[in-house]
Specification:
This protein is an alpha+beta fold. About 30% of the residues lie in helices and about 30% in strands. Strands 1-6-4-5 form a 4-stranded mixed beta sheet, covered by helices on one side. A two-stranded antiparallel ribbon has the order 2-3. A hairpin with a 2-residue loop joins strand 2 and strand 3. The longest helix is centred in the middle third of the chain and has 15 residues. It is globular and about 65 Å long. About 20% of the residues are buried.
């Protein structure tokens, strides 16, 4: 099976100039006989800040079908590093291999975008998700979102017919 990239217009690319943050674990509190689940305040604030900076780049209408997303998380270069390593990091050559974990920073971004309803209805629509963590001179998250083509009955029959005639 071959993976075929099928992007549709528009491809939206923007940078959110905040140091990438991880999604905090849900917290629980007893309220009488019930247990209430809540998101930590630090996570809620990080999601609000991310959404505020991403909002001007939202599409006119949310993506309806499959969605592809590339995320590049750029973390600050440690001041304690030697000059050669700082230069390599500034050139995008040093991967970020420490905390926060890639899946936790992805989760914050995806939940923030999903919560607005302006990008897509549900993060279940995401069929392609790629991310990279690295050190960089300018911190932030580069987001690239695109709609992916859905196969239709007519397109499938045409493709199937072309394959039969090609043999």
């Amino acid at each position: 099976m071959t993976f075929v990239e099928r992007p549709l217009s528009p491809v939206i690319v923007f940078t959110v100039p905040l140091i990438p943050a991880a999604k905090g674990r849900p917290r629980f509190a007893r309220v009488g006989q019930f247990v209430r689940t809540f998101t930590p305040a630090k996570t809620e604030e990080a999601e609000r800040n991310f959404v505020a900076l991403a909002a001007p780049h939202a599409p006119a209408a949310p993506f309806d079908g499959p969605v592809g997303i590339d995320l590049t998380f750029m973390f600050p270069i440690p001041k304690s590093w030697p000059k050669w390593k700082k230069e390599a990091a500034a050139a995008g050559e040093v991967e970020h291999t420490s905390k926060p974990d890639a899946d936790n920073v992805q989760k914050l971004v995806l939940d923030a975008l999903t919560g607005t309803g302006r990008w897509f209805r549900d993060d279940a629509q995401i069929t392609t998700l790629r991310s990279r963590k690295l050190y960089a001179a300018a911190t932030g998250t580069i987001v690239r979102i695109w709609g992916r083509a859905e196969i239709t009955a007519q397109a499938w029959k045409a493709k199937k017919g072309a394959a039969i005639h090609a043999t």
